[in-house]
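Researcher: I'd like a candidate sequence for this fold, 181 residues long. If you have to choose between options at a position, lean toward the conservative one.
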């Protein structure tokens, strides 16, 4: 399969301050450049979320100033639905990258882990999660660590606290993928 699609999922809730959003955007810009360089045919699906998720264009993804509460599963459900509608698994290499500060409604975090593990990972080549925040991890991180323990070849995660960490974290998260490309 020579076609690939990358889902870029960014938290734009009120708990994501401008510095955190800037870290996430820098991570996604690096990812976007990497994908354009390594795939002849690459599609990128941009999804932003707070309490609800929506697919947006590149301009709105990187520059819109939306805010609100946080329900991460809304973005994961939208990702699943778009895959089912537009990207047959037999015809596409499907990847997803998510950036968030990890703040989420507590009862939503187990639902997120279940969605990723049961509905997304079977369709994806790789899912990576970056947490952009300098404080202690929240429930989402704990649930995602359980996924990584069970699926280390298909799921990775890391924390980014400052701009200088973006490239080393990116290289760490995508090391195997870069060697295969």
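Model: Candidate sequence:
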């Amino acid at each position: 399969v020579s076609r690939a699609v990358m889902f870029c999922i960014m938290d734009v809730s009120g708990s994501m301050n401008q510095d955190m959003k800037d870290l996430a955007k820098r991570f996604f810009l690096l990812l976007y450049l990497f994908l354009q360089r390594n795939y002849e045919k690459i599609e990128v699906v941009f999804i932003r979320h707070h309490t609800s998720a929506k697919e947006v264009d590149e301009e709105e993804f990187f520059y819109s100033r939306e805010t609100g509460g946080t329900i991460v599963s809304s973005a994961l459900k939208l990702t699943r639905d778009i895959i089912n509608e537009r990207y047959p698994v037999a015809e596409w290499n499907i990847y997803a990258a998510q950036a968030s500060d990890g703040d989420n409604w507590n009862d939503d975090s187990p639902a997120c882990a279940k969605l990723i593990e049961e509905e997304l990972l079977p369709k994806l080549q790789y899912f990576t999660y970056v947490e952009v925040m300098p404080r202690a991890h929240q429930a989402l991180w704990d649930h995602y660590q359980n996924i990584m323990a069970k699926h280390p070849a298909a799921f990775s995660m890391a924390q980014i606290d400052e701009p200088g960490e973006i490239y080393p974290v990116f290289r760490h998260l995508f090391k195997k993928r870069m060697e295969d490309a």
